Amino acid sequence: MGQHVKAGELEIWTEQVGEGPDVLLVGGLGDTVESWQFQLDGLADRYRITAFDNRGAGRTAMPEGQPTVEAMADDAAAVLRSLGVSSAHVAGFSGGSIIAQELALRHPYAVRSLVLQSTWSAMDDFMKTMIRAFHWQAELAPSERDFLEGFFIWVYTARAHNDGTVDRFIEDAMAFPHKQSTEDFLAFADACARNVTAGRLDGIQVPVLVLAGGADRMSRPELGKAVADEIPGARFEVMEEEAHQPFQEIPDPWNVRVDEFWQEAERLRSGIPSS
After folding, report:
1. Which positions fall inside the AB hydrolase-1 domain (predicted)?
2. Of 228, 255, 15, which is closest to residue 120 (Cα–Cα)?
């Protein structure tokens, strides 16, 4: 069962499962703890995993004022402090990967390693146009289902649309009792569009794995590669047949890859050579 934890002035909804080295999972645009269910279920036998609802998503309220990625990174650090976690392996996807970048820059001692899925360091004109399109889609879609069907074109592979996976995700989203408001969804999107970490990423000094989907039309592989190129020692890998959220579409291979990376990062922390 989850709980609200105090993070500054916010009460942030948080779930923690498992035993072992600490892992913090940071969700993207509008996503909640539930977006990480395959990781909460699949990795809790090896790690103590914490996931939380970002401000303005799920069971965490949006405070007054314009949200920023920096503030959301501070929220993530506050969640760890509230739970007595001194440092964690951090994984974030999409907007959550931007929060994870800022977390590593603003609170370096809280981060053991980074997994950045579907990431970027500065939105290019293509992505900024996409964000503007989200505005009119969210405001003018005839129904919630219509909006989700259109939005998920950007998120999941054609395979997932054609085999019924996306239909199941849509049913789950429509049944979820803690829906994000249109205003909060767009405020989060705009915060991600404003944020720029390019030119600062060489300040990240922990092991980093950047994962991109070869079929991701939102945060294309070249954007992730630019992130990896700027971070000292970062690894960059493309999952050729995948889109924006492979941790949901192919959770078992994704979990295996990040588990390997976290185990290696733990060995490095302990001074044990890689085999």
Report:
1. 23-245
2. 228
Where do the domains of the chain lie?
3-270
Q: What is the DSSP string of 197-223?
A: -TTTGGG--S-EEEEEETT-SSS-HHH
Distances (CA, A) of 181 to 34, 58, 141: 17, 9, 14
Query: Which CATH number among 3.40.50.1820, 3.30.1780.10, 3.40.50.1950, 1.10.10.10 corresponds to the domain 3-270?
Result: 3.40.50.1820
Whole-model pTM: value is 0.97
**Tens digits of residue pLDDT in 133-149:** 999 999 899 999 999 99
- d(CA 152, CA 165) in angstroms, rounded, equals 11
178-197 pLDDT tens trace: 999 999 999 999 999 999 99
Tokens of 265: 């990062």
Distance from chain centroid for Cα 230 = 20
Q: Give strand pairing partners of 238.
A: 212
Half-sphere exposure of 109 (CA within 13 A, CB side): 4
Taking the C-alpha atoms of residue 51 and residue 74, their distance in angstroms, rounded to an integer, is 15
Q: Alpha-carbon distance 12 to 124, whole Å?
A: 31
Distance CA 119, CA 223 (A): 7
Query: CA of 152: how far to CAs of 174, 194, 195, in Å?
Result: 13, 22, 23
End-to-end CA distance of the chain: 38
Q: Any idea of the CA torsion for 141, 146, 148, 152, to the nearest 10 degrees?
A: -110
